[in-house]
Specification:
Radius of gyration: 20 Å
Organism: Eutreptiella gymnastica
Largest sheet: none
InterPro entries: HMUDK_hel (IPR040684)
Shape: globular
Number of strands: 0
Domain 5-hmdU DNA kinase helical: 4-230
Number of helices: 10
Structural class: mainly alpha
Oligomer: single chain
Protein name: 5-hmdU DNA kinase helical domain-containing protein
Strand content: under 5%
Pfam families: HMUDK_hel
Amino acid sequence: MVPQFCDFVAERHRIFVRRERGDAKPWTTDAVLRDYLFCNIYRELDRGTIFLHCQLPIQKAKWDTHAAECKQCRDRKLSPLHIATWTIISYRLLNRVTSVPPDGLPLPCNEQLEIFLAHLQHIRDTGRPVFTDAHQALSMEDFSSTLQHLLSCKAQLLHKVCASLSGRPELEKLHRCLQVVPRVGPFYAWQVVADLVECGALSAVHPINEDGWVHLGPGAVSGLKKVLKKGKN
């Protein structure tokens, strides 16, 4: 099964290349790959990931300007890691590019967060989807509560999380420390870790071994068992 799996990986990526190049359909002669939907082989090529990673340097520049002008945020000491962590969590819990307004994701500012949440509420009120349909998502109420708690001055959760991230170079420990954020379980925590690694926010703080550890979801575990022919599944 391992050679067949490698063939699948190669052909699925060829489909991506042909589609992006503008080739006419069909992009493959494989009936299964032609007729069914599969994720991109490389996470970095997903539309949402590309969008998010393009947003990160913009967010840092926006914060520098905003912090100088906003009385509420003027004295807050937020590092590039703070901005990246906040931005990534804000997007990944949403995971729908079309729900982000033209001026981008919110900065870690209560006023900006309330404007952003009002924008999402308007989307919901007009009957349009707010969150991704690619996986199980949060409710609007849980999404709002999580970001409000992360930003709470009393809880200081954003500072605590970033302090933990700064001191834990091992991916497994990074994954674990992110799960102190309400409703950020193993799946979301791994998405955040992967984004922080891919965008360079963590390597700017300390060296990271990208191949040292990975979190597999239940679907990946089931598929891996099939490939390796281990277990009943």
